[in-house]
Please model this.
Amino acid sequence: MYEPNVVQGCDSMVGSIAIIAIIVTAFTTMLGLVKPADTAKYCGAIVGIALVLILIVSVFVGLWSSMSLWQKAVVAVVGFCIWRVWWQRRQPRKKKEEE
Model:
C-alpha cells in the first residue's frame, strides 16, 4: 500500500526525536543525573510514545485518503465549527457598563 509523504516525514521526524531523547537519557545516566535502574524505563517510554505517534499519524492519513470528497468536507466543517466554539469561549466576555 502506498503511504503518502506525510507519513514518511512524520515517521522520520518522530524517529529522530526518539533517538535524540535516548541519547540525552544515556548522557544523563553517564553524568549521574538519572539512576541506571530508571534508564530502561525512560527509554521504553520514549520508544512507546514514538510508536504511538507514528501509528496515530498513519491511521489518520489512511482514513483521510480512503474518504470521499463529501466526507472530507463534512469533517472540515465539523472541525471549523468546533474551532469557532472553542475560540468564542476563550474570548473574554464584555461587561455591560453600568450607567
User: Anything to note?
Assistant: The longest helix spans residues 36-66. The CA atoms of residues 6 and 82 lie 24 Å apart. The chain has a mean pLDDT of 81. The helical segments are 5-31, 36-66, 69-90.
